[in-house]
Write a structure and sequence with these properties.
290 residues, alpha/beta, TIM Barrel, two-stranded antiparallel sheet, 11 strands
């Protein structure tokens, strides 16, 4: 395995991770052999930051990771998230926000990944979109959830606590718990979480945006289709996706990326963002797009 880290490295709690990591969600839709090819290629290329969850195919993705990479390299940082569960329904996810739900999900991760400790676990809040929004008994105080995660950390079952889909006020509320990363929707076109990014930078917290290339959810358009992005990509001789990812890396040094794919070729294309050096004009044009 190479020691080169795509995009350089950033601190995630007590770990140094590659600034371009890998989000494994799409591996739910491929078989073990195809998943293994992508995962092994990712680590061969220097990626040591994998993002997963037990509810990706009800531990299917975790199983792929374990089959492909266990026994795990010492420097591999597997990050999971809790707050939802897999269900057999037209919408295959349901919220699972209660403290005992979070504990069950951590144990699912430990069992399916074959770990004694999950290095980092992100709490996915559901107060706002995109995705499911908490109603009724799924509206759970943040402090109750943090208390359970702190207990799991004290027991050694998780190494560190992160947050996902949180407001700036919730991040400030959670800071005393020792937050190591935040995952929010964010892209060159969607700066609605800029305040959270600034809070992370001020507190040495890794900022790990999801949907950096947009999504099918409302108000999250694909920045790769924006004419300014496409013009800059042509000028730099690269793809629009690489420009969007490179802008995020250039925008703040505390940022890491977890683009996902089920294809080795697409994985390699995502990593090309590490080699894109946006000039001052490009950065200025992109900064004005929000």
């Amino acid at each position: 395995m190479t020691s080169h880290r795509p995009g350089g490295s950033v601190t995630l709690g007590q770990h140094e991770i590659s600034r371009i990591g890998y989000g494994a969600m799409q591996l739910e839709h491929v078989d073990t052999a195809a998943a293994g090819a992508v995962l092994r290629r990712a680590t061969d290329l220097g990626i040591n930051h994998l993002d997963t969850a037990s509810f990706y195919g009800h531990t299917t993705v975790n199983g792929h990771i374990r089959t492909a990479l266990s026994p795990y390299p010492d420097d591999l940082v597997i990050v999971s998230k809790v707050g939802a569960r897999r269900v057999d329904a037209p919408v295959p996810l349901a919220l699972a926000q209660h403290p005992d739900d979070l504990r069950r999900q951590v144990h699912l991760d430990l069992e399916s990944l074959g770990l004694e400790q999950v290095p980092v676990v992100n709490l996915r809040r559901a107060d706002q979109g995109p995705g499911l929004i908490a109603e009724g008994d799924q509206i759970v105080p943040l402090d109750d959830q943090l208390a359970e995660l702190i207990a799991l950390r004290s027991e050694g079952l998780i190494g560190a606590i992160g947050l996902s889909n949180v407001s700036a006020e919730q991040l400030e509320q959670a800071l005393p718990a020792g937050i190591v990363c935040v995952q929010n929707a964010y892209s060159v076109l969607d700066r609605s979480s800029e305040d959270q990014l600034k809070l992370c930078a001020a507190n040495g917290i890794a900022w790990i945006p999801y949907f950096p290339l947009g999504s099918a959810f409302d108000r999250l358009p694909s920045p790769t289709e924006h004419p300014v992005v496409q013009k800059i990509a042509a000028r730099h001789g690269t793809s629009a996706a690489a420009v969007c990812l490179a802008w995020i890396l250039a925008h703040d040094d505390h940022t890491a990326l977890i683009p996902g794919t089920r294809s080795v070729a697409h994985l390699e294309d995502n990593l090309r963002a590490a080699d894109v050096q946006l000039d001052a004009d490009a950065l200025r044009e992109l900064d004005q797009l929000s």
